[in-house]
Amino acid sequence: MKKYVVILMCLLLSGCNNKDGHVAKVDDVIIDEQNFSENYEIVGKIYDKKYSKSDVLETLVDRAVVAKELKNRNIEDKTNYIEAVKKEIEDYFGGKKEMINYLQKNNMTVKDYDDYIVARANLAMLKNDFIRNIELTEQELIDEYSENKEKYDNYKIQILVMDDKKSITYALQNSNKNFDELIHLYSTDLESAANGGIIDKYHLGEKEDAFDEALLNLKVGDISSPIKLQNEYCIIKLIDSNLDFTKNKSNVIDSLLNKKFEAFLLELKKNSKIKIYTELDG
User: Which neighbouring-strand residues pair with 234?
Assistant: First the structure.
């Protein structure tokens, strides 16, 4: 759901081309007042003012900063990136037709969609150009993992959730079904049950302490006794655990590269000549 909201928010914040006025300037790029106001109105209509004018303007400023840096690096051919982003977004919505239908329902145009695609492609191009020159040392990776183990260490588990202990005990004692079938038949957690009860990457702290305590006492292949949580009972099967640097190294590399790229973007923004010409409420 979070990804869906982010995609929609970005779609709403289309580029500015109108010369009638402006609210800000990034180096020599004008952020148009009329188009900015139209975008903010759409955001408010859909999200009931969840996003402020400052949020909208900041997104447009970030886009201008990225486009400027691409120009400075003489990076222009974005065809492959645009096609890749189009496929990713259209697949997410179930196809191009479904995507267009969604835009129309939310008073957006294909032009809004195209502007968003270009913005995503620009960001991907800049990131790839940046990280290809970054060499991470083994010590950097080990330090990142050691300082953020809770972020990387994870468990693959399978859970059966029911409302009370009596129900979950009855299901276990009076059924010759295997654990997969019990989840399909009885689990009251519809989200996990739809995936066979599987949670691919569970991190400690995402659920209640009692859940984590039971999980930490399991070996791979073990199934816990019923666990009392605040509003329900649960049984956990531990399928696998990824609890060391070697197993998580690829995730550590990706995360550290993302951190360095985000720091680079902040530095770009800091060094840009950004002028705000109007006061924004909120």
Answer: 161, 227
Highest mean pLDDT among 106-110, 143-147, 165-169, 175-179: 143-147
Per-residue pLDDT reduced to its tens digit, 189-228: 888 888 999 999 999 999 999 999 999 999 999 999 999 9
CA 11-13-18 angle, to 5 degrees, is 125
Rounded Cα distance, 210 and 226, in Å? 11
33-47 vs 2-12: helix crossing angle, rounded to 10? 150
Kindly tell me if the per-residue pLDDT of 43 is higher than 70.
Answer: no
What are the φ/ψ torsions at residue 156 (nearest 5 degrees)?
Answer: -95, 120
The pLDDT of residue 185 is above 60: yes
Cβ atoms within 10 A of the Cβ of 48, count? 8
- Output the CA angle 235-240-245, nearest 5 degrees: 135
Query: Three-class SS of residue 155?
Result: strand
CA dist 116 and 14 (Å) reads: 6
CA 177 to chain centre: 37
- Three-state SS string across 59-109, please? HHHHHHHHHHHHHHCCCCCCHHHHHHHHHHHHHHHCCHHHHHHHHHHCCCC
Residue 75: closest CA among 10, 129, 116, 120: 129
Residue 2: its pLDDT value, please?
A: 47
| Separation between Cα atoms, residue 273 and residue 280, nearest integer Å | 19
The phi, psi pair for 240, rounded to 5°, reads -160, 160
Provide DSSP, 2-41. Answer: HHHHHHHHHHHS------S-EEEEETTEEEEHHHHHHHHH
